[in-house]
Amino acid sequence: MLPNTTRKLNKKKKWIISGVITLIVIVAAINIFVMQGKKKSEAKADAVSFEKVTERKLNNTKLISGQVKPGNIESFYADPTKGKVKDIEVKEGQEVEKGTKLFSYDNEEINLQMKQAELDQKMATMRYDQEQKKIDSIKKEIKKAKDSGAGKEVTDPLEEQVSELEMAQKTTDLEKEKGKLQKEELSKKQKELTIYSNFTGVVQKLDKDAAQSSSQALGGQGKAFLQVASKDPFQVQGTLTELQKSQIQKDQTFTVTAKANNKKKWTGKITEVSEFPT
């Protein structure tokens, strides 16, 4: 009985050992499978992927109303201190070049001063010539007296007259020079009474009545009687809100469309954003 029981126990032990070994192998296999799965997941997580970047332009359009104006406008007001406006040389709508004569003033006071200066210079020139003739005549007398053997009692008084005339002639010459300078100064003032265009453009407005209006005569500025608009590129002037002002800067480009025809477009650049409210 004992040997059979021993054999049965041995067989049981073998089955248990085999089961344990099989279980260990299964657990090991599962662990290996799990570890490999983790490694694959980590490899996928560590892998760097590249995507194509798409470039897109974002537009933030601001709609602002404005007025188209000439690049430069010069307005002329009658200046009573310069005299009365006369000789208007241009017509409304006429194209003018830089330096074109527009109009001039008639200043009676300067005209009288110029006439007086011219008269004084003529009189000084006449005196100078008369004094020169006397000097020449007396010098001839002195020569004639010396040639005839006359003494100093004859020639000395004559030479004294020559000296006096030459001194007077120098004074007259200074008066002539003074008159010349005065005429040059008055001539400058007269040239300033002629007004010229400062740029190439078009006579946009001409009101001859405003040039001679009573307000001008009384010294008030009145209204401009002549305006010249330049041919420079046009300007667009608009009004911004406080929010728009913070979003718009100098040198930004913009597009202009006309209300009458929104198909027509012009491009430009912002030249100034005023800091002062309107």
TrEMBL record:
Transmembrane segments annotated in the record for this chain: 15-34
Domain YknX-like beta-barrel: from-to ranges: 234-278
Subcellular location: Cell envelope
YknX-like barrel-sandwich hybrid domain location: 74-228
InterPro entries: Beta-barrel_YknX, BSH_YknX-like, HH_YknX-like, UPF0194_transport
Keywords: Coiled coil, Membrane, Transmembrane, Transmembrane helix
Top-level taxon: Bacteria
Signal peptide boundaries: none
Domain YknX-like alpha-helical hairpin residue range list: 108-192
A cellular component annotation (GO) from this entry: cell envelope
Keyword Flavoprotein (UniProt): no
Gene3D superfamilies, alphabetized: 2.40.30.170, 2.40.50.100, Helix hairpin bin
Pfam families: Beta-barrel_YknX, BSH_YknX, HH_YknX
PANTHER family for this protein: EFFLUX SYSTEM COMPONENT YKNX-RELATED
Record protein name field: Efflux transporter periplasmic adaptor subunit
Organism in which the protein naturally occurs: Bacillus mycoides
Lineage: Bacteria, Bacillati, Bacillota, Bacilli, Bacillales
